[in-house]
Each structure stands twice: as C-alpha cells, then as structure tokens.
UniProtKB/TrEMBL annotation:
<feature type="region of interest" description="Disordered">
    <location>
        <begin position="24"/>
        <end position="47"/>
    </location>
</feature>
<feature type="signal peptide">
    <location>
        <begin position="1"/>
        <end position="20"/>
    </location>
</feature>
<dbReference type="Pfam" id="PF13416">
    <property type="entry name" value="SBP_bac_8"/>
</dbReference>
<feature type="compositionally biased region" description="Low complexity">
    <location>
        <begin position="33"/>
        <end position="47"/>
    </location>
</feature>
<protein>
    <submittedName>
        <fullName>Sugar ABC transporter substrate-binding protein</fullName>
    </submittedName>
</protein>
<keyword id="KW-0732">Signal</keyword>
<dbReference type="InterPro" id="IPR006059">
    <property type="entry name" value="SBP"/>
</dbReference>
<dbReference type="InterPro" id="IPR050490">
    <property type="entry name" value="Bact_solute-bd_prot1"/>
</dbReference>
Length: 472
C-alpha cells in the first residue's frame, strides 16, 4: 500500500465484492403504507410512529474509483444498511485523478461527505487544517482494536485508523539459496541478521559470469549475472534504515527534521554502497515501485526488501509459475526496525453524524468485509485479535496463498506486532509527500556514486526542512 500509488482499486473492490453476495434490501422501504381512508386515524398514527422509529440517518462515503467500482462498494454498503435500522450509507465514487481536487472544492463549500477514503500522506495535513474528526472512541467496547502502530495521530489524538496493515519484509529465492548452500534468512526477530551478516550473505549469492563472488580474485563487477540482494530505496521505505541506524527522517513527534544527522546519512550511504562498493545489488534509482518484480520474480536477485502486499499482488502468480520464495524479517544496523503503513478511512469534521460515520467505518473496515484482500495476501488484518488469537491466525494464514504457516507467522504476523514495527512517518507528521519527493531527487546522484549521501543531504538540508514545514 504505497503512498501516491493507487493499489488497484478495481482489484480491491472485486475482492470485497464477495462480501456483498446475497445482500438484502437496504431496510429503508416503507411497506404496508395503507391509506388513512382504509385504516382509520389510529392505525395511521401507529404507522407514523413506526416510521419515525425506523427512519435512518443518511451518511455519505466517498471513495476514488469509477462508477462501476462505486456500484460494487454500494452493494457492500447495502449489506451494512440491511444489518441495522439506524444508518443508511450512500457511496459516492470520484475518479482517482480528480479525487483530492473534488474534496478540496467540497471542503471550501462546507459540503464534504460524512466519511471517506484519504491517502496516507494526506491525513495529517487534513487534520492540521481542522478537517478530520477525532476517532479515538471508534473501538470503545469492542472485543479488539487495531494495532497501536496503525493509528494516525495528530496532537495526541487519533484522527484515523489504517484500513489495512502492511509491513516491510525480506523476500528470498529458495532455489538460489539452496544452490549456493547458504542458510535461509531468519524468520524470527530474535535471530535477525545484522547488516554485516546480510552483506556477507549477499556476497555468497552474487555471481559473475565465471561464478566468482565479490572479494574473490578475478571477480568482474561489470559481469554480474546474479545479485545477492536488493534494498528498496523508495524514499518512504528508506526511512527504515535511518531509524535502524539510530537516526531517522524526523524526531519522534514529527516536529524536527533529523535526516541530516550522521546516523541517518550513514544509513543511506550503506544502502547505496550495496551497489557502489559491495557489488551485491543492482543499480536502483528509487523511482519505480516494482522492486519485487524486478528482482525476485525476474530471477536476477536472491533476496530483496519490500512490502507484505507483494504476496498477493505478484508473488502468488509467480509461485504458480514455479518460483519458490520465502519471507524473513529485515536485517538491522543498530536497532531492529520495520515500517508499517495502510491507507486511511476518515470521518470529516463537517459531518453532523460522527457517531454514525464511525459505526459504518468500524463495520466496513472489519476483516470479514475485506476477506478477499486478506486471504489473497494483499492486505493484512488491523485488529489485534487476528495477531494474538491462534485460531484466528490459522484462519488467516493457513491457506495456499501464503508461505508455510510457521514461517509466515514468525516473519510477518509476530513481526508486525513486535517492538520492531514502527509507523511510517505519515502517521504522525505533515508534508511527507513534498519531503519524500525532494529527497528522491536529492539522492539521485548518490545511487550512481556521483556524490555521497552526506554531501547531497547537507547541500539540500535547508530545502528538506522547508518542505517538511510546508514552505518548499
């Protein structure tokens, strides 16, 4: 669920459509509306009283997508509408290209929907503008709530929960490891590789045309036919390594930029050196979100980092084609860190029905209503119980779309609820799109070795701080 990228709304909605099968009526039909002449005054008064009791509060839910996609989502909403007699949800579909423009226009005219979808990187901005409601009470009285790392926070208040969970992982090609006689990466957090162990293993899995490895006499860095590793260097994923090295992009409260600190700069350079000095990774300039397709699935790289969504979006199909892959926890520099993310469903502050909007979102976000996405491996559950209740974990993970149960449970399920799991920065700070866009541009020459991470960031630190402040 990468920010700035629409994760296949058509696929998403098709998967959720399973939940809409067998939907009944919306429960808002006024049946038995006999005329006063036929029923008499007393019956009419009783009918009016009954109608008053069952009259529903109508709320609107906005989403990005085509009219057809909106129709699919409305069928899901109809299931909710039929499940109770208090709330009626109307879905409004807006094309992806016009979504934020439309919402901004509606905000200006005080005509925002009651609730709707919002990109990860827009939540804190809209909160800072006073456009989102506090949803801290959404799960009060429930048997479970979302993992703490999935709460979007602004000034100490929860302003949204992620509709799905995603964590960053290490994927690997089992055949390549077996052929090299190298042990698989660890699935258990307490056995995670250090960065040096990761690089040393990657060297054993990197081969030139003559079968030589980096560091061996006669190794040809220009003739590599198989690389040992690839670390995704999209800016938002790159934050993982700065945190792991004791730095970060921002301070813990998101108010200060820390990317210029030595620990942060060093971490970025170590990622760049996988290609530049260690000769274990292919060149990547951090601009395209197809890392697993370019590496593990292409058969050119033995292990690569990326998000959990890849299980469902690409690896399942590759497995059917013969790929034998595994999943492991990330290596670490100083601290064990993975980032989690997930797009938000929000309650807009202009609504007159915040409680009803939260009730709808709580129902809509439930695992049962998104089971197609979860069981395929595109999404992970958000509620704690799916991570802690063994029966629910088996229901989720024991299916052929996933790697073996124990492996996936350790490397993904347990990892996602561990102390290593930290929210991506858009969960708690503003202007991350501007910051990440600028950072991606700044680091372009670092990946090719034309400059160092230290020099590139130092020269552009004031601009990065301005971007974070919203004054680029």
């Amino acid at each position: 669920m990468n920010t700035g990228k629409r994760l296949g709304a058509g696929v998403l909605l098709a998967a959720m459509a399973v939940s809409a099968v067998g939907c009944g009526s919306n429960g808002n039909d006024k049946t038995n509306a006999s005329s006063p002449a036929a029923t008499g005054g007393a019956s009419t008064k009783a009918a009016e009283t009954s109608t008053a009791k069952t009259k529903k509060v109508k709320i609107t839910y906005s989403m990005w997508g085509s009219a057809e996609e909106g129709s699919v989502t409305q069928k899901i909403a109809d299931k909710f509408n039929a499940s109770q007699d208090r709330i009626e949800v109307e879905v409004v579909a807006i094309p992806w290209e016009n979504y934020m423009t439309k919402l901004n226009t509606q905000a200006t005219g005080n005509q925002l929907p009651d609730t709707g979808m919002l990109k990860e990187d827009g939540v804190i901005q809209w909160s800072s503008d006073g456009m989102l409601n506090d949803v801290s009470a959404m799960y009060e009285g429930s048997d479970s709530k979302p993992l703490d790392s999935l709460a979007y926070k602004y000034q100490g208040k929860t302003v949204a929960y992620a509709a799905a969970n995603e964590v960053l992982l290490l994927y690997y090609n089992k055949d390549m490891f077996d052929k090299a006689g190298v042990a698989y990466p660890p699935a258990a957090l307490d056995k995670a590789w250090t960065w040096d162990e990761f690089v040393a293993t990657a060297k054993k899995l990197t081969n030139d045309k003559k079968g030589k490895h980096p560091g061996e006499e006669g190794f040809d860095a220009d003739g590599i036919v198989q690389y040992g590793a690839s670390v995704e260097n999209l800016p938002w994923q790159l934050e993982t390594w700065t945190l792991s090295n004791g730095g970060g992009f921002y301070s813990a409260d998101g108010t200060e930029v820390k990317i210029g600190e030595d620990a942060s700069v060093e971490a970025i350079q170590r990622v760049a050196d996988l290609y530049l000095k260690d000769h274990v990774a292919p060149l990547s300039v951090g601009q395209t979100d197809d890392g697993i397709q370019r590496t593990i699935i292409a058969g050119t790289v033995a292990m690569a980092t990326n998000g959990a969504w890849n299980v469902g979006t690409s690896l399942n199909t590759a497995k059917e084609g013969g790929l034998k892959y595994g999943v492991a926890v990330l290596p670490y520099m100083k601290d064990k860190v993975t980032l989690n993310t997930g797009g938000a469903n929000v309650v807009f502050s202009q609504t007159k029905h915040p409680e009803e909007a939260m009730e709808w979102l709580k129902w809509y976000n439930s695992e049962e209503n998104n089971w197609g996405l979860i069981s395929s491996g595109i999404w992970m559950p958000t509620l704690e119980k799916w991570y802690k209740d063994e029966a629910l974990t088996h229901k989720w993970v024991d299916n052929p779309n996933f790697p073996p149960y124990e492996e996936y449970k350790s490397a993904v399920v347990d990892y996602a609820q561990s102390s290593a799991a930290r929210p991506a920065s858009w969960f708690y700070t503003n202007h991350t799109t501007d910051f990440n866009t600028l950072l991606g541009s700044v680091l372009g020459d670092v990946w090719t070795g034309k400059t160092t991470a230290k020099d590139a960031i130092a020269k552009n630190l004031d601009a990065l701080k301005a971007a974070h402040a919203g004054s680029k």
